[in-house]
# Entry
Amino acid sequence: MIPRSFKIATIAGFDIEVNITFLILLALVVAMQGLAAGFVLAVLVFGSVLLHELGHALVARARDVPIAGIELHFFGGVAKMVGAPRSAGDEILIAAAGPAVSVTLGALGLTLGWLTGMTVFTGLGYINMVLGVFNLLPALPMDGGRILRAALSRKMGRLEATYKAVRISHAAAVVMGVGALLAGQWTLALIAVVLYFMASQEKWIARSWHYRDEEPEMEILDDQGRSMGWYDESGRKVDGPWDGEPPYGPGPWQPPGQGPHHRRRVHRMPGGGYVVIEHHRW
# Structure
């Protein structure tokens, strides 16, 4: 069985993994540009994406957020956080670090290309400029969307800010998709569709963690394991991340550690109810 991703190196203490889809991206680059030029461009893309994600990872570590590693995939890469930022300000810094690295490398590459006339520097500049600017789009799960969500969370809390950011992301993806179709850019239109659904997933992931300075909300379950709703620390009922039955089924509810993609710490209440204190993906 072919692994979904595999480790290729360790840089600055971070394990670097390459997803099989990233190899497909590099192969497409080579196929479209020819062997020699495509290989050079693929190396530049690989290095640019890696440095972008290292920017995220290094700032996250400086802000005391653990990083499990960096994984490169078809749509770029991800620095895999295993802990929550302490605040919205920390998330903004972490999210902005990647585009800042890319734009800086882009400016440096374009400058060197202008001074030396070497196309490799110019190519490096354009790749990083595109990578930095594209990731600043105010749409989840792009870095710009995370910055937007963090900024909104200062007024409405992280969960509600995520819901609003997702609505904005959906609108941005629709505009991007329609514009791409009108321009005949089918690849860009497909990317818009993928981004639309990836933004939708953020509503589920929003339950995964909260800022360290923000109190978590709780899900109350009845004695049959059925959800009775989500409540904040003051006892006010809030909207849950799903419609109808929760994704782990109507009951009897599975104990912590069981079931796909979910792990929770549960406290039994008098009368047979439960309080879910933590709810996150693994």
Remarks:
- Helices lie at 20-33, 35-62, 88-116, 119-135, 143-156, 158-182, 186-205.
- The chain has three domains: 5-136, 150-209, 215-282.
